[in-house]
Amino acid sequence: MPAIPSLLLANAVVDFVIKGGPIMYPILVVASVAICIVIERVVWWSRLGVSRKPKRLEEIYAALEAGDLTRAVSLSTDSTDPVVRMVHHGLNHHHSSMQGALEVAAGHELQVAGKFLGAMDTIVTLGPLLGLLGTVTGIMGSFTSIGSSELAVEKVTGGIGEALIATATGLGIAITTLVPMNYFHGRLTRLQFELEAAANNVLILAARHGFDQARAKG
Description:
about 85% helix, mainly alpha
């Protein structure tokens, strides 16, 4: 029995796509890409939330404040927390300043966290544009069919329907992509603030004991 509603739904979707005209095919491709990106980013940010270790970061601060660089490095080794990973990279700098090493590590973490945001921004813009293109082609089809046959009325209404379906689908893609994109932007901004705050704290604590110069010389 459950197969019957699924079959009806599939037929309705196919009929909807056909009525939307040929422009619906690139729109569906864009929609599929958007869905994949949103799912991947939701999973990635969920895993990041689980991997965060704020207590470990506080322990590293305490070790640096006590002047125990070896313990601070040990605590930050093989961490899944991006902030702690950045700190570990900074504490193990050998060929650059600690500040430079922290900046490089922070940049890498932000690059990974901001993955696909550019693609999502493109989808938000491209979706309505494809919908608008579908509107234009649908209206053009309506005008070219006027007076051409006895079925001109059906062709005109079909062209208008094609235009409306393409426009609605394109706008729907943009709206449903815009909301998670803004959410991911907010999470990225928050992570950037945490990385900058942690880097400043490490630099201040390391400067008290001369770890920056000592590590660079080593």
